[in-house]
């Protein structure tokens, strides 16, 4: 992250903020490796908060130069025109994912919007803030395709897919995730959007010990699978994804749709295509959803993979 790279980042941010997006958006995606020297940095516009995240520790002089550029940016006319209330720098490479406020106020909770829906974020307390922005098109797809459906949302996290499904008219949604706190935030997200919580279930269970509960709440018309690449003691991508796929036919009602996702740069589309063919060959591949343009990567297979399959 030399002087030239920091100057490039400054120009990219000023362009992206003039004018600022009306909804939450990624402004700069260095992890797409299109900007030399900035491969471990991202910047997100959270509707009044500009959050930059560092995924690798920079040299002290580089960090000082980055801070100075950001403080200078926050004193300019373009920044003032955005009406922003805070500029934050998150050190994701630290165990605590330390959050540093470079300008404005510190926030723990913050509300943002996406495709007309509201979500509650946690800033400064956790590694992830509560909504993965690269899944924007996936949530829109679910909202568009959920009318009247019974939906199963596996590895639900803060229930972004569930919020989208209910907004799209789903008959019911079952969310499953081991993290009770994440599901609690999911309830908050549904309340923010005025949803009928009698149609939404929250199961804080280990999926692989709870197939009976999951099956009892079914059958389902749409199943969403969006697991972490690795979660100590509960999920390992190359071993456990197949265990999920082979259960799909018995969870669907003789017909139905699956949105299968993976976001490991080291894993390509073939992981899902070959995995489905081996474990649930009754499901045919329909399409791969596009990724938002702000998440452009020098290799398409390094970004998010979200594939639609159907059992007819």
Task: Give a written overview of the molecule.
The chain is of the alpha/beta class. It is 30% helix and 28% strand. The chain contains 10 helices and 16 strands. The chain has helices at 3-16, 60-73, 77-82, 136-144, 160-167, 180-192, 211-216, 237-245, 248-251, 269-279; strands at 25-29, 41-45, 49-54, 86-91, 98-104, 109-114, 117-122, 150-154, 172-176, 200-203, 220-225, 230-231, 235-236, 252-262, 284-288, 305-311. The strands form 4 sheets. It has a 7-stranded mixed sheet, sandwiched between helices. Strands 1-2-3-4-5 form a 5-stranded mixed sheet, covered by helices on one side. A hairpin with a 3-residue loop joins strand 2 and strand 3 (49-54).
Radius of gyration: 20 Å
Helix content: 25-40%
Strand order of the largest sheet: 10-9-8-11-14-16-15
Encode the helix/strand succession as letters: HEEEHHEEEEHEHEHEHEEEHHEHEE
**Silhouette:** globular
Separation of the first and last Cα atoms = 51 Å
The assigned structural class equals: alpha/beta
Query: If you average the pLDDT, what whole number results?
Result: 94
Strand content: 25-35%
Q: What profile does the largest beta sheet have? A: 7 strands, mixed
Q: Give me the count of strands.
A: 16
Low-confidence stretches: none
Number of helices: 10
